[in-house]
Amino acid sequence: MHKITNPHDKFFKEVMSHIEIVRDFLMQYLPPEKARHLDFETLSAEKDSHIGEDLRELFSDLIFRVKLRNEETDAYVLFEHKGAIDKPVGLQLLKYMTAIWGKALSLDPSSPLPIIIPIVFYHGNRKWTISTDFDGLFETGKEHYGAYRRQIPSYEYLLYDFSSTKHEPIRGTKKLRIFLGITRAIFEEEKEVFIETVLDAMKAFDELRGTVGNEEYFEAYIRYLFYARTDLEQEELKERIKTVSLERSEKMLTIAEKLLQEGMEKGMEKGMKKGMEKGMEKGLAKGIIKGREEGREEGREELLWKQITKKFPQIPQRYYEKLKALTIDQLDTLGLDLIDMRSEEELKRHLPI
Question: Is the distance from CB of 188 to CB of 194 less than 8 angstroms?
Answer without folding.
Answer: yes
